[in-house]
Amino acid sequence: MKELNDVILRTVAKVAVVIILTFSINLFISGHHRPGGGFIGGLAFVAAIVLLFLVYDIEKVQKNIPIDFKVLAAIGVLISVFTGVGGMIKGKPFLSQVFGHVNLPVFGQTEMATAVLFDVGVALAVIGTSLTIIMSIGDDR
Amino acid sequence: MIQWILFFSLILLTFSILVTIYRLVKGPTAPDRVQALDALGINLIAGVAVFSVYLRSTAFFEVILLIGILSFIGTIAFARFVERGVVIERKQSD
Fold first, then answer.
1. Do the chains contact at A47 and B76, CB–CB below 8 Å?
2. Which pLDDT value is given to residue A2?
């Protein structure tokens, strides 16, 4: 019997991971007016990391991405809560947001909203929670 | 005319998805079910594409890409489970 190897899978995954990460960033950015947002962007990011887990193994991925995902989830929840509380300092309700139009050098007239900071927190929380669950119950020990 | 063609192709795709679901439930062995799930994802992608042509809208293209990614990863995970019995390895043996 021949030895098992997955050279086709590794070659495909090297290209596909880049595409999936780019698509997750696109989903994250488009989330203010169009379908997308922090939650689904984080899930697409998790899909790319899961593909890396499938193609390589947990130790090799964790050696190259030295992040404790439980800490990442906690940091995400903290960012979300603090951006929600930040509006309360000025007497507004919890989770109220402001936005304005800013002239950026390359993009021109761009709408900047503080809801993006909340979305960053949501994305980090989703990434941390999902990867912690997958690495806990998907292990072969 | 083209509206009727698209509508008819949507009906055919729905019928194809139903037949695939029969194989997904009935399928005697695990590889049959894996292939049925992959074909189901491809049929869903085709259905969404035909539907977006029918509505003349580009709003569903992200759905197509997302279903493609998830179907790809799911098929790889099931194939690894069928072939090796373990999906995510702690340390590779080689």
1. no
2. 57
Q: Do A20 and B92 touch (CB under 8 A)?
A: no
A28-47 pLDDT, tens digit per residue, is 988 777 888 889 999 999 99
B62 touches chain A (CB under 8 A): yes
Q: Find the mean pLDDT for residues B37-50.
A: 94
What tens digit of pLDDT does each residue of B13-42 get?
Answer: 999 999 999 999 998 888 899 999 999 999
Identify whether B74 is part of a domain: yes
Domain ranges of chain A: 7-137
Please check whether residue B90 lies inside any domain of the structure.
Answer: no
Q: Do A141 and B90 touch (CB under 8 A)?
A: yes
Mean pLDDT of chain B: 89
Distances (CA, A) of B93 to A7, B4, B89, B90: 15, 56, 9, 10
Mean pLDDT of A56-83: 89
A75 pLDDT exceeds 70? yes
B93 interfacial to chain A (CB closer than 8 Å): no
- The CA distance from A109 to B69, in Å, is 33
Q: Is B74 helix (H, G, I), strand (E, B) or coil?
A: helix
Does A92 score more than 90 pLDDT? no
CB B27 within 8 Å of CB B36: yes
B32 CA to chain A: closest CA distance, Å? 21
Backbone CA torsion sign across A27, A29, A34, A38: positive
Q: Is the backbone of residue A96 left (phi > 0), alpha (psi -120 to 50) or beta?
A: beta
> Is A57 in Cβ contact with B90 (below 8 Å)?
yes
